[in-house]
Each structure stands twice: as structure tokens, then as C-alpha cells.
Design brief:
Helix content: 55-70%
Order of helices and strands: EHHEEHHHHHEH
Shape: globular
Number of strands: 4
Strand content: 15-25%
Structural class: alpha+beta
Strand order of the largest sheet: 2-3-1-4
Number of helices: 8
Length: 182
């Protein structure tokens, strides 16, 4: 196995007006697990990885967030995997997403939020976090309303503003010497 990871620092807090749009852009790009641009292309369509996705980590107190994309793969697939990743990122930054992708992403993310509130541990954790931050559940309700109201144009503008491919840090780890010999 080999591992591909790319990361980008994002000086943003979760109160930033761009946060909901960046959240949904990440969800459609790679955060939606097996239903995302990266997973559809790299794992399902081309079979280049065992797992692929992206994560957005934006925090409430410090503007020290990040965006990470990753893939686990056969070292022999490195060139094709990296090319497919770059093409999908470039496509998202150029054209954005379809109305169908956005509708499905909103539904899935909102259902995930609702489901998390039915799990005692997740709800307790959220309530404790809210208490610490001086928030109540109205903050989450407002975030969900912002997500529901998002347009593709807002998401595309946020992605273009915050995800600069030229600033990505990229790490590739694996036994590539053996892959090159095959």
C-alpha cells in the first residue's frame, strides 16, 4: 500500500461567512465518503485507490483550520492517481458542481446532522462544546439554514477563494521503488 495526502492551511474560524459554502464544497469534492467527486472518479470509476476523500477542519476559537485530501493506493497507481486528483480539483475550481450534486450533498449532510442529534454521545458532546463556547443549539440551526440556502455560485466562489492548488503541501509515502520495477 501507499498513501497520498495533500494539505492546505486555512486561516478561518467557523463564524466566517465562507464556512458553510466551503463545508459543502468539501463535501461534494471528497468529504461525502463514497459519494463525492474524488471517490466517484478515483475509486469507483478508475479503481485507483482503496479509499479516497477529503476533510475540512475549521474551528470555533482559532483561525487555524485546514483542508486535507487523501488516498490509499497501490504504489503502481501513483501517477494516474495524482493526475486524477488534480483533474478533479481543477474541474471543481473551474466549473463548480451540478444542481443534482448540490441537492444530494445538502440532503446527505443535513441528514447526518439530524442523525448525530439522535445519538446520546454525539448530542452530549455537542452540548458540552456549546456550553464551553457560549453557544446553544440555535447556532447549529443557523448553520443548517445557511447550508440549505447555498447556491452553486457561492460554493464555487468560496472554493476558488480558499483552495489554491499552488499552495498545497503534498506527501506521498510507499514503496515506490518496487512499483517502478514492475
Amino acid at each position: 500500500n501507499a498513501f497520498f495526502m495533500t494539505a492546505l492551511a486555512l486561516p478561518m474560524k467557523d463564524e466566517d461567512p465562507d464556512y458553510p459554502a466551503l463545508l459543502m464544497g468539501n463535501w461534494m469534492l471528497g468529504g461525502g465518503a463514497l459519494k463525492s467527486r474524488l471517490a466517484d472518479r478515483i475509486r469507483q470509476k478508475e479503481g485507483l485507490s482503496y479509499g479516497v476523500g477529503s476533510q475540512l477542519a475549521i474551528y470555533p476559537q482559532d483561525p487555524a483550520g485546514n483542508w486535507v485530501a487523501y488516498a490509499m493506493f497501490n504504489p503502481a497507481n501513483l501517477v494516474k492517481l495524482e493526475q486524477a486528483f488534480r483533474e478533479e480539483l481543477d474541474k471543481a475550481l473551474k466549473d463548480g458542481f451540478t444542481a443534482e450534486e448540490l441537492g444530494a450533498a445538502k440532503t446527505a449532510w443535513l441528514q447526518g446532522q439530524e442523525t448525530s442529534r439522535t445519538q446520546d454521545g454525539a448530542l452530549a458532546g455537542r452540548l458540552v462544546s456549546n456550553l464551553f463556547l457560549g453557544r446553544d443549539m440555535a447556532w447549529q440551526e443557523a448553520l443548517e439554514a445557511k447550508v440549505k440556502a447555498l447556491t452553486n455560485e457561492q460554493i464555487l466562489a468560496s472554493l476558488r477563494k480558499h483552495l489554491d492548488p499552488s499552495k498545497l503541501s503534498i506527501v506521498k509515502a510507499g514503496d515506490f521503488a518496487k512499483a517502478d520495477k514492475k
